[in-house]
């Protein structure tokens, strides 16, 4: 972070909305504040592990206890990596051998690597499409694959791997839900004073943010938000944002905190050129 400080934007006087989940926002907020911004936090995703009393718990436990049955395991996100490690700690004092581990994105890979799980990631991007270009995931006919993720989300990865002849299962380690907020809190955070930029790191977070911003009775118009600079980590999410009305969109080099905040340099440059 320090070596790239010269590339960080000057955000003095700007109000930047951070939408990362509660437990993942600290570094992004600190980075924004170090640039002089006022960072406001309104999580657009709530992350909850599958509880022991949940009816899905037994099936999940069975998948974890039988990890050695899978030839390939793919971890979707840092959240999935952290929850997977907690499960593996319970049932595998030693990691089963012979599994090829993959992760979507460097950050997810790093979480697993720090736990001595040698996970490979695609350098071509931070999504399922990038992972599907990896040579090792082409000739996978009859391979048994486990995808570690949260409930819901996109099915592109599993559908394509299945089409290539693999037997694919999901291990849903946690739920992602849309948070609920008091309307007064929504109004004071989003509408009472103009926002300079909004940082969104996933398509689901974008959908949830729009839902939250409308208020509990959909009494707030989100039209005023569409002209605010929106920073997203991929062209796919940018296209999704355009569909819901956003017109000033900057695509960061990735979903990590430094890339998202550094992208505000480009956003500021674009604004200056108008």
TrEMBL record:
It catalyses: hydroxymethylbilane = uroporphyrinogen III + H2O. One of its GO terms (biological process) is uroporphyrinogen III biosynthetic process. Gene3D superfamilies: 3.40.50.10090. PANTHER family: UROPORPHYRINOGEN-III SYNTHASE, CHLOROPLASTIC. Belongs to the uroporphyrinogen-III synthase family. Catalyzes cyclization of the linear tetrapyrrole, hydroxymethylbilane, to the macrocyclic uroporphyrinogen III. This is Uroporphyrinogen-III synthase. It comes from Neptunomonas antarctica.
């Amino acid at each position: 972070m320090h070596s790239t400080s010269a590339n960080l934007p000057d955000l003095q006087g700007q109000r930047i909305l951070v939408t990362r989940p509660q437990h993942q926002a600290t570094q992004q907020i600190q980075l924004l504040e170090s640039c002089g911004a006022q960072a406001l936090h309104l999580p657009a995703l709530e992350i909850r592990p599958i509880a022991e009393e949940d009816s899905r718990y037994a099936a999940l436990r069975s998948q974890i206890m039988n990890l050695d049955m899978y030839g390939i395991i793919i971890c979707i996100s840092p959240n999935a990596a952290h929850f997977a490690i907690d499960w593996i700690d319970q049932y595998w004092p030693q990691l089963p051998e012979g599994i090829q581990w993959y992760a979507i994105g460097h950050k997810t890979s790093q979480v697993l690597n720090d736990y001595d799980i040698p996970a490979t990631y695609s350098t071509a991007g931070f999504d399922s499409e990038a992972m599907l270009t990896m040579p090792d995931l082409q000739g996978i006919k009859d391979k048994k694959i486990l995808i570690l993720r949260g409930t819901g989300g996109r099915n592109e990865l599993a559908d394509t791997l299945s089409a290539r002849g693999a037997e694919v299962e999901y291990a849903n380690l946690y739920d992602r839900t849309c948070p609920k907020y008091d309307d007064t809190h929504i109004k004071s955070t989003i509408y009472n004073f103009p926002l300079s930029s909004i940082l969104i790191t996933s398509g689901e977070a974008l959908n949830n943010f729009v839902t939250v911003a409308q208020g509990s009775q959909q009494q707030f118009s989100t039209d005023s938000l569409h002209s605010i600079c929106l920073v997203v980590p991929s062209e796919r999410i940018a296209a999704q944002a355009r569909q819901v009305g956003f017109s000033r969109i900057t695509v960061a080099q990735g979903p990590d905190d430094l890339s998202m905040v550094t992208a505000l340099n480009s956003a500021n440059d674009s604004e200056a050129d108008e």
